[in-house]
Target: DNA polymerase III subunit delta'
Amino acid sequence: MAKNVEELFTLQPVVMKQLQTIFDKNRLAHAYIFEGEKGTGKADIMHFFVKLMLCEQPSENVPCETCRNCRRVDSGNHPNIHHIYPDGQFIKIDQMRELIGEMKMMGVEEGRKIYVLHHADRLNIASANMILKFLEEPDGEVTAILLTEQMQSILPTIRSRCQHIKFQKMPRHVLLKHLQENNVSHSMASTVSMMTNELEMAIFLANDEQFALARKTVLKLVDAIQQNVHEAMLVVHEDWLPNFKEKGEMEQALDLLLFAYRDIVSIKANPEAACTYPDMLPLFKEVALYSTYDRLSSQLESILQARASLQRNMNRTLLMEQLMLNLQEGYTFV
Model:
């Protein structure tokens, strides 16, 4: 098992309590949908729940980890568990036929049968209709677990026959802890944890040279804006525009700029607030001291408007020059 029970509780306390209560009260449903973004622990908690349902000696709604069934679940060799993954783009009807055939066979193993559909939103129409019939009339002790990041893409008729288990985003303090365990500095961890909730993506960003350059450029611009509009324009032309040639790079940079101004607002409200850029606290505290909430609000609005203009393919040089005037002086030109 990738994570121990304590880690799973830290990651998804509500879901873990919910599943343990279902097991404790012996209210196992025929089918569950585990819905949550990538990185929310769906696969690890599915593994825990499957093991709990099959464990020979569970204690306090936790699998024993040592019985034959627990060991076979961990090794991937339990004959009553079937995992279905998309074959190419979709989960296909032939995969469903094979699964249902296996589930209906008299197996050598007694007890509950469990099947897990990974990326269940990728069932095509034919395979979805076939699994629907099986969900309505399961043969014996059968539990289905459907994993998805996109609940709305699953047929309503399937959704209505499953118990919905909603996974929350990874708490930021948990992500920060994992990042620091992976030797990411506190400052960089604070920034990437605002850009993504998924650990692998956060580690990638933290080690990505382009992202480090983007972060550095954005903070250089924030510093220049506090000096005067000419310094800000200089950074735009010498650093910002050359570094962010692609639309996606510019979009990310504007997000990073927005987080900087959100930091300033947070610090003005609470000097001890958790920040995206803790390494910029001295400057941000000074800016917060001399800025009004109205001024900061209009600056945030200006960055959001610039982001919207980028989506409309406005000339990027003009867009950034206008943004500098808005952030510096609080007026616009068209």
User: Anything to note?
Assistant: The beta strands are 31-35, 81-84, 113-117, 142-148, 163-166. Confidence is low (pLDDT under 50) at residues 330-334.
